[in-house]
Predict the structure.
Amino acid sequence: MPATAIIIAAIVGTSLGLAEPAEEQWESCNAGAVETRLEACALIAGNLDFSREARAYAAASLGDLHLEQDRLGEAISEFSRSVRLSPDYSYPFRRRAFVKFLQDRGEEALADYDMAIELSPLDPYAFLSRSSFYRQSGERALARRDIEKALRLDLDNSDLYFERGLLSLDVKDYEQAELDFQKAIRLRPQEQDARYNLANALRFQSRTEDALREIGIYIENRADDPQGYRMRGWLRADTGDLDEAFADFQAAEKLRPDDLTLQYALGYVHWRRREFHDALERYDAAAPDYEQSSYFFYERGYARYILDQDRLAMDDADRALEIDPGNVDALWLKGAALLYLDDYPQAVAVLSEAAKLAPK
């Protein structure tokens, strides 16, 4: 029996006793092009000559393949089929839970996560999965409880340290996040997601040079991922290296031209360079993604003010203050725009308020 089939037999807890064509189907189900795998897994899952455990495994594999293609309905159907075929198999419960979470069916997802843990109380991934669910649902104390249980079961698992690092980032414990991502990388040196988040944790600690080193390694390994260039662009902008920052944002834009956050990033570099015509063009393109950003409207308003678009500048200042009444820069901008619009009493009132908030 080929190695893959032996592994599968161990997972499903049965001796499959497959004939040669079926063994080839197992190989096709577990490796190769997506469409080939879909066809092979479907043939196994629907073949009554195989054990229920083997069919359940194949159905779960089908669910994963559909999930990779964002076909959530098909994914949940296959995970449910796997559950029906082998109710003691915990894996499809936690995978179905994840799909339900994506579908905003939180209570149903939690029930499946709970069942996965009940079926496999010594499986660290059962606790990891529920911890991730709790973290993304804002239940950080419960997330912490589960990830610590998972680590007690397996102290040498890169995935567990990665998840705890994400939780530490969420609660702004950047030093702990750094330690966890470093541990994840030591256990699995090729773990690039941990390296990206390590760079993020370092950036939040204002350790820019260290963050630049880590994100540089990330880019070397994932040159086709725009988020690496985007982070390095912001790190370089933080140091005032605007030309290199602009080059990184452009590299990211080539990879993801429809990402409006990159329009903002490029506009910001133009803004810092005082290239306000170019900045406005980028900001206007980015606007749909920044409706709730006070500083976006301040920056765009300032560019408009410099370009003698005083009425539009005041409109942006008003929007910035609507989002964040304590945005002192927006108050100064509004006051300055009012002066140029010859509304002196209102300008004095606004500038006086700004002076009280930031007298220096």
About this structure: Confidence is low (pLDDT under 50) at residues 1-21. The radius of gyration is 27 Å. Residues 301 and 316 are 5 Å apart (CA to CA). Residues 52-68 form the longest helix (17 residues).
